[in-house]
Amino acid sequence: MSVSNQIKKGGLWNAFETGGMIFCQFVYLYLMARFLDKEDFGLMAIVNSILNVGNIVTEGGMGAALIQKQGITEKHKNAALQGGFLFGAIFFLICLLGADRIAHFFNNAQLSDVLRVCSVNFIILSLSSVSLNLLYKTFNFRYSSIITLISTFVGYSLGTILAIKGYGVWSLVFATLTASLLKTMGYFYFAPVKIKFGFYFKEWKELFGFGSGMILLKFSNYLSNGGVNLLLGKILPVSSLGVFDRSFQLKTLPSKHLGGILDKVMFPVMSQIQDEKERFFKVFYFGLGVSNSILFPLTLYFVYFSEEIVNIMLGKNWFEAVIPLQIMFLVLPFSISNKMADSAIRAKGLIYKNVIRKCIYVVVLLLSTFLLGYFYGIIGAAIAVTGSYIFNYFLMINLVRRIFKKSFKEVFYTPLKDALKLTFVIGMILIFYHILIQVFDINQLIGFLIFSLILGILICGIIFTQPRMLGPYINEIIKSILKSRKNKSGL
Predict the structure, then answer these.
(1) Rounded-to-integer distance, Cα 115 and Cα 51, Å
(2) What is the rounded distance in angstroms from the CA atom of residue 378 to the CA atom of residue 57?
(3) Other Cβ atoms closer than 10 A to 474
(4) Quick one: 98 exposed, middle or buried, by C-beta within 10 A (0-12, 13-18, 19+)?
(5) Torsion over CA of 297, 298, 299 and 304, rounded to 10 degrees?
(6) Do 149 and 126 touch, CB atoms closer than 8 A?
(7) Tag placement on the chain: N or C end, fewer CB within 10 Å?
C-alpha cells in the first residue's frame, strides 16, 4: 500500500475513533459534572497525575521503539512486554506501600485508598502497550479504533451508573479501570505476542536506546500536564483544582483527538520514509497545514462561545471555569503543531534534541504556573499554561527549521496563511452573529445552538460543492477521500 493510501485509510479510521471518543467524552463529562462534586474531580486529577509518572516508565518508550525500529522479531516483542510488566509491578508496589505518605503530603486522607486501588492500572496498562503499537505499526487502525471505542463506552457507562447511585470519586476510579482492562484484552487478542520464557536483554537494550529518549520526552510531556495538576494540588484548594482540571480537559478535547489522529497515522508513515528528506518534509508540511486550517478558526469559535460550552457541558455551578477555559482555548492550534513536530522528530530518531527543547519549556511552564497560580489562582495558572504553550511552539518551529534546513517562512508562515484567512471569515461571521443576538435579545444558549447548526450545515455544503473555499490543504484531503470512494465503487 502506498504512503498516501496508508495515510488516508489510517486517517479515516482514526477520524471514526475520534468522533466516537469526542461524543462519549462530552456525554460523560456532561453527566458526571452533574452528579459529582468539584472535589471528586480534583482528587482524581491528583491520582491520575501520580499514576502517569509510573505509566511513562512502565511503557518505557518501547511501543514507539517497536514502530520506529525496522525488522523486529518475537524476541523484541517479548523484551518490551516483559520489561513493561516488571516496571508496572514495581510501581504498583510503590503506590501500594507509599499511599499514606502521598496522601499526607497533599493533606487529603481519601487520596490514600483511591491511589491504592487505581495503582492496579500499572499492571493492566503494562500488558497493552506492545500490542497496541504493533497494531499501529501494521496500520491496523480499524481494530485499535473499535476496541478503544467499545472499551471507553462500557467504562463510561459503568462510571455514570455508579455516579448516579452516589459512589462519588469511586465512579471515576472504576470507569477508568474497566476501560483499561477491556482495551488490554482487545489489543492483545488482535495483536498477540507469542510469550517466550527468558529475559531478552540484548533486544531490550536495542529498544531502550530509542525508548530511553522517549521516556525523557514523555516525562517532560507529563510535567506539562500532570505536573501542573500536582503543583496546583499543593497550592490550591482541591475544589479549585477540580475547576482547573475540567477547564483543561475541555480545552484538550479537540487538540487531543485531532493530534492523536495525526500522530497515530503520521508517525508510522514518517518512520517508513525517514531517510527520504524532501518527501518526509512534504508529509510533515501538509499535516501542519491541515491542522492549522482546522484549529485556528475552531479556536476563535471556542473562545467566543466558552460560556455556553461550560453551561452545557458542566452546568451553571461551574461558572468559575469560563475565563480559564477562554484563556486556554488560545493554545489549541499551537498544541497540535507541537504534536506534529514531535512525530516528525521521533520518526527521524532525533529524540534527544527534542528532549532539550522540552526541558526548557517545562521549566518555564512550572515556574510561571507556580508563581501566577499562587498569586492569582486558576486564572493565573491558565495564563501561565497558555503563555508557555506559545513559547514552546516557537522553540519547536526553530528546531524543525534547523533539522530540515528550511526558512522560518516555510515552516511557520506558509502553512499558516490559509488558516488565517479562514479565521478572518469566521471572525466576520461571529461579529454579525453578535450584532444580531444583541439587537433581537436572543437567549445566549439558544442562539449558540442555532448558530452552530447553521454553521455546520454551511460547512457541509461547502465540503460537497466548493471545497476550495476551505483552503488548499482541506481541499486536497476532501478530493482524496472522494476519489478513493469513487474508485471503490468502480465509477
Answers:
(1) 8
(2) 30
(3) 21
(4) middle
(5) 100
(6) no
(7) C
Q: Pinpoint the alpha helices (H) of 36-71.
A: 38-59, 62-68
Span between the terminal Cα atoms of the chain, in Å: 21
**Cα gap 119→48, rounded to integer Å:** 10
Q: Read out DSSP for 266-328?
A: HHHHHHHTTT-HHHHHHHHHHHHHHHHHHHHHHHHHHHHTHHHHHHHHT-GGGGGGHHHHHHH
> If you search the block for the grid coordinates 451508573, which residue do you land on?
161
pLDDT tens-place values along the chain, 491 residues long: 555 565 556 667 767 777 788 888 889 988 999 899 989 999 998 998 888 877 776 665 666 677 666 677 778 778 778 777 888 888 899 999 999 999 988 888 889 999 999 999 988 888 887 888 788 777 777 888 899 999 999 999 999 999 999 999 999 999 999 999 999 999 888 888 887 777 777 776 777 665 566 666 667 667 767 778 888 988 888 889 999 988 888 887 776 666 666 665 655 666 666 666 777 777 777 878 888 888 899 999 999 999 999 998 888 889 899 999 999 999 888 877 777 777 677 666 666 667 777 788 888 999 999 999 999 999 999 999 999 988 988 888 888 787 778 887 777 777 788 889 999 999 999 999 999 988 888 888 889 999 999 999 998 898 888 888 888 888 887 777 666 655 555 54
Q: DSSP state, 225?
A: T
Give the pTM.
0.71
Q: Are 330 and 323 in contact (CB under 8 A)?
A: no
Grid coordinates belonging to 369: 504556573
Q: Compute the chain's Rg from CA coordinates.
A: 23
- The identity of residue 229, as a single letter, is N
**DSSP code, position 469:** G
Rounded CA-CA distance 39/58 in Å is 29
Cβ atoms 253, 48 nearer than 8 A: no
Give the DSSP per-residue string, 148-192: HHHHHHHHHHHHHHHHHTT-THHHHHHHHHHHHHHHHHHHHHHS-
Q: CB-based burial of residue 409 (10 Å sphere; 0-12 exposed, 13-18 middle, 19+ buried)? A: exposed
* Distance, CA of 228 to CA of 151 (rounded, Å): 28
Q: Compute the distance between CA of residue 398 and CA of residue 338 in angstroms, rounded to an integer.
A: 11
**d(C-alpha 227, C-alpha 222), whole Å:** 6
Are 366 and 231 in contact by the 8 Å Cβ rule? The answer is yes
Q: Which amino acid appears at position 384 of this protein?
A: A
Q: Which of 276, 229, 296, 263 minimizes the C-alpha distance to 474?
A: 296
- Grid cell for residue 33: 459534572
Whether residue 114 contacts residue 173, with contact meaning beta carbons closer than 8 Å, is answered with: yes
